[in-house]
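Sample intake — Hexosyltransferase
Collected from: Dicentrarchus labrax
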Amino acid sequence: MPSKVSCLYLLTVVCWASALWYLSISRPTSTYVGHMSVPIRKTVKPPKNITFTNIRTRPLNPHAFEFVINEPKKCESDAPFLVILISTTHKEFDARQAIRETWGDESTFSDIRILTIFLLGRNTDNVLNQMVEQESQIFHDIVVENFIDSYHNLTLKTMMGMRWVATFCPKAQYVMKTDSDIFVNMDNLIYKLLKPTTKPRRRYFTGYVINGGPIRDMRSKWYMSRDLYPESKYPPFCSGTGYVFSADVADLIYKTSLHTRLLHLEDVYVGLCLRKLGIHPYQNSGFNHWKMAYSLCRYRRVITVHQISPEEMHRIWNDMSSKKHLRC
Ligand SMILES: *[C@@H]1O[C@H](CO)[C@@H](O)[C@H](O)[C@H]1NC(C)=O
Ligand SMILES: *[C@@H]1O[C@H](CO)[C@@H](O)[C@H](O)[C@H]1NC(C)=O
């Protein structure tokens, strides 16, 4: 019996002690906060935002892939003016080579440093993976992550490019993302649009802006289901055939994508990230996203042209390079 009494006594003492302790710490704390609230108001976050941050740090769309071929030092020594990310597939050996030898040639401009990087995933055919590995050892311009390379996974490829720039080349000034069947008029891109002598822009994004909505016809290449995207309009987005942005945007888009449900249409998806970031893409009709028959004067006015075969790429490049002195 005495043990029960002493237990009860002990409990009472503990309760009182904790109540007293609570009162003693809560009072000075509240006066402390009240006293300090004027100078520290700006840095103390309201609880609302703390919850918001907690939700945001748990990725909805973790980009949980690893680089299996990488060029981590390509950018190290001196920051490039422009990084060109080219979405490509394993079999397009000729297209990559044509780009290396024409507009993607990193040594074209003596005063402007450009970097050309080809983006790939993993192929289900291991022979192709090995061929790409060999190609990479020769040219050191290929970056691969271990997601399955397919048309449906194009968004992952673009996000890999954003991640690469953000991680290994954050000091670059501008980035272009384009495809392997695009001809790029580099003179126009560099000197007319980006203007190396002017102050670098921030939160800048440009290309051929499309204001459209989802196509619900299942036969379309651009089909989008209501489940994945219920809204009737897309935010303005730049055609994936070629868009250009200040390099700070790469990190912003990559981080935003971690909290944005994945969509397989990469250009639409980038548009969704831009909307979240409050970055509005500028329209530039020089980014031609259709095929356009070659003529010297016509090609001199554009920044990109779509659907160019490797042979055409060489032909156009040679013609334009050899006729630099001609006037239109
Ligand atoms: C949360 O923080 C962001 C900036 O980090 C700010 O724009 C927003 O207004 C804050 N929201 C609340 C509810 O305080
Ligand atoms: C996309 O990549 C992921 C990760 O490798 C893979 O699980 C998925 O099957 C791929 N999707 C398609 C449609 O190939």
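Post-analysis note: The chain has one domain: 60-322.
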